[in-house]
Each structure stands twice: as C-alpha cells, then as structure tokens.
Design brief:
Layout lengths: L6 E2 L1 H18 L2 H16 L3 H23 L17 H16 L4 H13 L5 H21 L59 H13 L9 H11 L3 H13 L6 H29 L4 H6 L30 H17 L6 E3 L8 E4 L2 H14 L5 H21 L9
Antiparallel strand pairs: 1-3, 2-3
C-alpha cells in the first residue's frame, strides 16, 4: 500500500537528531554504546552488506553471552562462561564487543582501542572490572570459534540464467551475481536457509505477475511522472541504507526511552542481529533457488515472457541501482520483517519517536511512530525505486516474520527459576 514518508527539512531534522542523541546519551549503557560503535565500525570497515551483518551478529551474540554469564537472566546462546565473583557486566560487554570487532576488522583496531579505553575509564578500577574484562574476552573468543567455519567464504559455482523469468546480470552495470552461496552459510538460530523457503513466485503468465510487473514499470521507472516526490525520497534513502543503519538506531532510540536493564538490552541486540542474519541467509537461499529476474530485465524483455498483459520497454531504467542478485524475495523486506517482529516483541509496536538519517543523503530525514511505518516505506521504496515487484516484498516480509517468530520462541529464552 502507498504510505507517506515523514520527510522533514534537513535543518529541522538535525535539531531533532541532536535532541534525540542528548536524550539517548542520558540513558545509554555499555551495550547500547557498543552497538553504536559496532554499527560505525562495520560501515567504515567494508562495503559488503553480508560481512557487515555477520560481524554485527557475532559481536552482539558475544556481548549477550558475556553479560548473561554474569547476570544469568536468560538461557545462554551456546554455553555459560565461568565467572569470577563480582565481575562487572558493563566491562564484560565492552571487552566482548571490542574483541570481536578487532579480530574481524583489525584495520579498525586503533579506533576501537581508543573507544575501549574511553568506555572502560567510566568503570571503577576494581577487581570486578578486571574479571569482567576477562569474561568478555572469553565470551568473544568462544563465539568467534563457533563461527570460524560457518562457510561464509566458501566458493560456490554459479551460472546465470538465460530463459525468460531467470535472473541474469542487470543493465547497465551487468555486475556478476553477488554471493550465490550465502543461502548455505550457517545460521545462528533457525535450522538452515531452507527452513523458511518462500512458496514459488507467481507464474510469468499469471494475472498477479502482470499486475505487479505493471506497477513497478509505471512507478519505478527513472523518469516516472506517476511517482510522488516523497516516494522518490524513500527510494533514494533505502537504496543507500543497510539494515544495520535502520534497525540498530531505531532500537537504540526506543530503548533509550524505556527503563531497561543492561541484560535486557544485551538480549535485544542479540535477538535483533540474529534475526537479521538468519533472515538474510534464508532470503538468499530462496533467491538462488528460484532465480527470478529483476524488473529491469523483465520489462526490457517483456515481449518474451508469454504473458499478453505485459508490454515490453527495451529502454526502461530503474530509479535506483539494481542489486546484483535475484529479485525474489526482497532482502530489505526479509530482514526488515524479521527486525520488525523482534522490535515489536521487545519494545512494543507503536508510540515511538524514531528518526533515521544517512550521512550520504543529508537532505533526507525520516521520522516514524511505529516499526510498521518503516517497513511499509521500505516496501514502497523498493517498488518505486524500480528494483522489486510487490510480490517480492510480500514474500520477504512473511519470511522475515516466520524467521523472527522462530527465534523469539527458541533463542535466548528467560532462564528457568531455581527451585
């Protein structure tokens, strides 16, 4: 459905951002501080979105494991770290995040070392602080070891399609397919990438395919006059903005307005990062299973799809960059649906004040009151941007929710009380 982005002028957005940051700083803790540092680190360290998501998930799970080993509010992710008495949970969170980030992105060590010293300086220099640091390092090393052979860099043979409906590199860049093996990489909570594989996409000769083809053709073309200005803005914004830049800031902003413990926040960001990673793996398993062509290919070759309702346009161009991998289902919708389900379960669905920005697009500031508003805008952004069909978005959202519901039921559950 058509939604309205809450776009403000840059000046007002900057003022609002400053106020939010001040409010957040007053309620920040070591977990939320280092979630922000993790986000900053992965954005600076790599352009690979899968690598960013993997690093963030390993870091957040390590932080959870470290804090939970001391506090014990939840079942551990893998195993409980031996904890000396009086160990500092904040120190453990700092040490765990720092350890993971410096191991996976050693080129950022100088910045991370400085951040670690600054964070630890705020904690009294006691034996508990030293114990906490040792717990954090042990937790990080354990999770790093667990993920060392997850298949992330395993080579995969792949050949693009040639038939109508099959994905192939898209014009004008014609970039080779991105990470065709991502769907086989180890997950954190769900069984594997196939567990929540989407149902087959609409047939090329179906009415649904023609309807969604026509929608993206009309509103997603680079110079479309049927696309409202605010839809162009959200298309630009979510083309340039990864999941970690959307849902981590949103979670921090909302968590800062609530009375939450360090342990609760450690679990929140661990669940969020697991949900986004596992949904990404599931999404890519489905993408390369069905190999659905992107709108730019479909529309340029519409005369060959066997559907009399689709008219070809050999010169058609999308509004934003078409990602170099199959269309179905939408990645943004998949990890967005997963993130939304976790955030609604942990923080509530509505009544929030969320501001999203991206330094590369200083003219766009988006504000939201619910997590659903974010995912609705993203659905529009990918269609009005010309890179997805509506059925891509619907399938991705369903997959993401299924993944998140499974994770919320099975991972990091509250610890059973001692009897």
């Amino acid at each position: 459905m058509h939604t309205t982005a809450h776009i403000r002028v840059a000046f007002c957005g900057a003022v609002l951002c400053a106020l939010l940051l001040l409010a957040q700083a007053a309620r920040a803790d070591a977990v939320t501080d280092w979630n922000a540092i993790t986000e900053e680190t992965i954005l600076a360290a790599t352009q690979d979105p899968a690598m960013r998501a993997r690093t963030a998930a390993i870091a957040q799970v390590a932080v959870f494991e470290a804090v939970n080993s001391i506090v014990g509010d939840y079942e551990p992710y893998a195993s409980k770290i031996d904890v000396p008495s009086h160990a500092s949970a904040p120190a453990a969170a700092i040490a765990a995040a720092h350890r993971v980030l410096t191991r996976l992105h050693p080129d950022r060590s100088a910045q991370l070392d400085a951040a670690r010293e600054k964070s630890l300086a705020a904690i009294a220099n006691t034996i508990g602080k030293r114990y906490g640091i040792s717990v954090g390092i042990a937790a990080a090393d354990a999770i790093l070891a667990l993920r060392a052979n997850d298949g992330f860099d395993a080579p995969v043979r792949y050949s693009p399609g040639t038939k109508p409906g099959e994905y192939r590199p898209t014009p004008p860049e014609n970039i080779p397919a991105y990470r065709p093996g991502l769907g086989q990489v180890a997950t954190f909570s769900i069984r594997d990438g196939q567990q929540f594989r989407s149902a087959p996409p609409p047939n090329l000769n179906s009415q649904q395919y023609a309807r969604d083809y026509d929608e993206v053709k009309r509103v997603g073309e680079a110079h479309s006059r049927q696309r409202p200005t605010d839809r162009t803005q959200v298309a630009r914004f979510y083309d340039a903005t990864d999941g970690e830049q959307i849902y981590y800031p949103a979670a921090r902003q909302v968590a800062a307005t609530k009375s939450r413990t360090l342990s609760q926040n450690a679990r929140l960001f661990a669940l969020l990062s697991i949900a986004m990673w596992d949904s990404a793996v599931a999404c890519f398993e489905t993408k390369y299973h069905y190999m659905v062509w992107r709108p730019v290919t479909a529309i340029r070759e519409g005369g060959a799809d066997g559907n009399e309702r689709t008219d070809a346009d050999p010169a058609w161009q999308a509004t934003v960059f078409t990602p170099p991998f199959p269309s179905y289902p939408s990645g943004h919708a998949s990890f967005g649906g997963a993130a939304r389900a976790v955030l609604e379960a942990e923080l509530g669905p509505a009544g929030h004040a969320i501001t999203l920005t991206n330094p590369v697009l200083p003219d766009i500031v988006l504000t939201y009151r619910t997590f659903k508003e974010i995912t609705d805008d993203i659905d529009d952004a990918r269609i009005y941007g010309g890179v997805h069909y509506r059925f891509d978005q619907e399938a991705g959202a369903l997959m993401g929710k299924q993944v998140a519901d499974y994770i919320l039921k099975h991972a990091l559950r509250p610890a059973k009380p001692h009897r």
